Give the backbone structure.
Amino acid sequence: MSRRLGSAKQMARLGEQTLLERAVGAAVDAGLRPVYLVVAAGLGTSFCLSDTAGTNERVVITVENPEAAEGMAASVRAGVRAVGDAPGVVILACDQPAVTAEHLRLLAEGGDAVVASAYAGGKGVPAYFPARVFGALLALQGDTGARVLLREARAVELPGGELDVDTIQDLELAQRLYERPAKR
């Protein structure tokens, strides 16, 4: 909902891309197919993405979440419902600029294990969830996400993962750390 930032964080720019384009691009570059983009109901067409895959293949599917005001759990439920009988799912947010395609590939190799990202002394998203825990993901409520499922998860270190863009100060820090200087 981007309340602390004051505007849609998905559209905040980090160099030539929005945070949303950056996250979707990392997922596409990691070979995750398709990428499900969960958005609040009525916003599906307002999030414009550049052609991150460079193909005509439909790699990004928008999923509207009519319960978005509830918080993260509603978005997780909407996404898990959309993937159907997939063997697993990588859940990520658009506001973590340190996430790379390589990191997502490592998570997606989880097989039948839950695999979290490790940063700031804890575990969090992005994370891989095998189909065997989809029921638990569908039972989540409120704005807490899947933390309880990540407590015992194997973890892959995500350097810089603790930075998530929630405020103007966070965005300014992300721009200093992750924007590439203009080519001369």
Notes: Residues 50-56 have pLDDT under 50 and may be disordered. Strands lie at 13-14, 17-18, 35-40, 60-65, 88-91, 115-119, 122-130, 154-157. DSSP finds six helices and eight strands in the chain.
